[in-house]
Write a structure and sequence with these properties.
Oligomer: single chain
InterPro entries: 2-thiour_desulf
Strand content: 15-25%
Pfam families: 2-thiour_desulf
Bound molecules: iron/sulfur cluster
Organism: Elstera litoralis
Strand order of the largest sheet: 2-1-5-8
Protein name: Purine nucleoside phosphorylase
């Protein structure tokens, strides 16, 4: 039995980022997991109905609300995206996720500070925070080897 894994669609080469690009991860582990049928792709922002391209958005650390760089508040739509990602993860039996760091949805180690100046701060995106509250372990591309070990352990115990 292969443990299933929720993965940011942009890591899989889908051009769903705010600027219309992807963040394809060329790691052989990802290719292997795809062959094994483990991967469940998700872009929370696109799933919530946001267009691509779209204005970049950042979380305001003082209150957790999310704004795009035109000043429009997008908190609700990001929360909708997080809910959809959780629903998909639960429906597909994913207890692990590999998500793109830095994103106001998918960031797991760092996000940007809300000033649109490229300043990183430790923190988590909306989707990651919700997945974690529901017991899903979130990894970033830099932790892919620890994720691989965790998946192997889980496969053996399933
Ligand atoms: Fe990638 Fe997540 Fe941003 Fe979608 S919301 S483009 S999956 S980082």
């Amino acid at each position: 039995v292969f443990t299933r894994l929720l993965v940011s669609a942009c890591l899989l080469g889908q051009k769903v980022r705010y600027n219309g690009s992807d963040k394809r991860l060329g790691d052989r582990l990802l290719a292997l997991w795809q062959q094994q049928g483990r991967i469940v792709p998700i872009c929370p922002e696109v799933a919530a109905g946001l267009p691509t391209p779209r204005p970049p958005a950042e979380i305001r650390p003082s209150d957790g609300r999310i704004f795009d760089d035109t000043g429009a508040e997008v908190t609700d739509i990001f929360e909708t995206g997080a809910q959809i990602a959780l629903t998909v993860a639960q429906r597909e039996g994913c207890r692990f996720a590999l998500l793109t760091d830095g994103s106001p949805s998918c960031g797991a180690r760092f996000i940007y500070d809300g000033s649109f100046s490229g300043t990183r701060i430790p923190g988590a995106g909306r989707t990651v925070a919700l997945l974690r509250r529901h017991g899903i372990a979130v990894y970033t591309p830099s932790d892919i080897h620890s994720l691989s070990m965790a998946l192997e352990r889980e496969d053996r115990s399933a």
